[in-house]
Write a structure and sequence with these properties.
single chain; alpha+beta; OB fold (Dihydrolipoamide Acetyltransferase, E2P); DNA polymerase, domain 1; five-stranded mixed β-barrel; 10 helices; about 20% strand
């Protein structure tokens, strides 16, 4: 198994990157979250998952070990293959995915391309117990615990901002900087728009 790659980026063509590791070029499929983290850098260090099928060996790469762990949990769900898992990882951060599963927010999960309401509900049922038992290594642990202890109006404010056309990641950034937990949904939306 190939568990990690460290090398130079030769080509970026989302969702695929070509990495040169000591003269060997590896084609790696990555979620958009990894592309955002890479930026314009040339050197990269990725945690990888090698998916083996009869007709192909495909490498999936992640900037953090937590993303790789969540990806592996997603592909264990019946009916969710690596491409769908990659779409989910591109649409939601690790923290927002865990939050959506714990809040049973099938509407947010169903917004992912390729995920219908039934698949979203299946994800919630199958992942709820497994995600609670996971120990994540990175800073996402703090995001998850902070999110669960935060303002209960955050969920409604998040849905309203997404309805206005903001992407999930943008909304999370806008709301994460608001520390006052006593704000109403309207106040949260106003302040989030000012933070934009």
């Amino acid at each position: 198994m190939i568990g990690r790659l460290k090398g130079n980026i030769l080509e970026k063509n989302p969702p695929e990157i070509l990495i040169d590791v000591n003269g060997i070029g590896y084609e790696v499929l990555c979620p958009m979250s990894t592309f955002y983290e890479i930026g314009e850098g040339i050197s990269i260090d990725l945690h990888t998952h090698l998916h083996v099928k009869e007709d192909a060996h495909t490498l999936f790469g992640f900037i953090t070990k937590d993303e790789k762990t969540i990806f592996r949990e997603l592909i264990r769900v019946n009916g969710v293959g690596p491409k769908v898992a990659l779409a989910i990882m591109s649409h939601l951060t690790v923290a927002s995915l865990i939050s959506a599963v714990s809040d049973e927010d099938d509407v947010l999960l169903a917004k992912t391309p390729g995920i219908g309401k039934k698949t979203a509900q299946k994800l919630i049922v199958e992942l709820s117990d497994r995600l609670e038992k996971l120990t994540l290594s990175g800073s996402n642990n703090q995001q998850i615990s902070a999110r669960s202890a935060s303002n209960p109006n955050n969920k409604q404010a998040s849905q309203a901002l997404q309805a206005l056309g903001f992407k999930t990641r943008e909304v999370e950034k806008m709301l994460s900087s608001i520390k006052d937990e006593s704000l109403t949904t309207e106040q949260l939306i106003r302040q989030a728009l000012q933070n934009k």
